[in-house]
Amino acid sequence: MVEVLLFHHVQGLTDGVRAFADDLRQSGHTVHTPDLFEGRTFGSLEQGMAYVRETGFDVLGERGAAAVGDLRPELVHVGLSFGVTIAQKLAQTRPGARGALLLHACIPVTEYGESWPESVPVQIHGKEGDEYFDEDLPAARELAASARSAELFLYPGDQHLFTDSSLDAFDAEATELLLARVRTFLAAVG
């Protein structure tokens, strides 16, 4: 079993994000879910992004870095959309990372270094018709092609936060397939 640090999306630490973390816990993993928005959740992506702009990307990034705290370095870093910005940075720059799961987003690897660390396996998941993920798809494909232990999974549909059971975008079938792939990944790095 592994220790997971899961960063929520721009709508906050919703009940659906908590449920996703609980699904991983049921597989025996320890899952930490820091609340970068200090209890705030938002009814739309636009409201969440307004909060992010108001608070500042740097402030939220610092909160994410602080969430590592006294946790051991051998973490699997997981990000959901906005949370990918923090999870990916930690996976690329913090020594000892066991793996990374980038859900609904992917940042160009060069944002945080010259290349993806060879010792850090990574999975990237997104919907092939999602307008937000479509913007990140070139970076996701580049990462998948450049790293030996990288996988990119595309799902049919256009919902962005399809793994959050508390949102209208939830896609139960795609989420179940994603969770099966994630469980396999976590078992392999554990």
How would you explain this protein's 3D organization?
- The structure is a single chain.
- With 190 residues, the chain is an alpha/beta fold.
- It is 42% helix and 16% strand.
- The chain has a six-stranded parallel beta sheet, with helices on both faces.
- It is globular.
- The termini are close together.
- The model has no long low-confidence stretch (mean pLDDT 97).
Tell me, briefly, the overall form: globular
Order of helices and strands: EHEHHEHEEHEH
In the sheet with the most strands, the strands line up as: 2-1-3-4-5-6
DSSP strand count? 6
Instruction: Classify the oligomer.
Output: single chain
Look at the helices and sheets and give the structural class.
alpha/beta
How big is the Rg?
Answer: 15 Å
Strand content: 15-25%
Q: In angstroms, what separates the terminal alpha carbons?
A: 5 Å
Proportion of helical residues: 40-55%
Sequence stretches where pLDDT stays below 50 over 5 or more residues: none
Largest sheet: 6 strands, parallel
Pick out its properties.
alpha/beta, 6 strands, globular, six-stranded parallel β-sheet, 42% helix, 16% strand, 190 residues
Question: What is the strand and helix layout of this fold?
Answer:
Layout: E1 3-7, H1 15-26, E2 30-32, H2 45-55, H3 57-68, E3 75-80, H4 84-93, E4 99-103, E5 122-127, H5 131-146, E6 150-155, H6 172-189
Parallel strand pairs: 1-2, 1-3, 3-4, 4-5, 5-6
GO molecular function: hydrolase activity
Pfam families: DLH
Domain Dienelactone hydrolase: 4-188
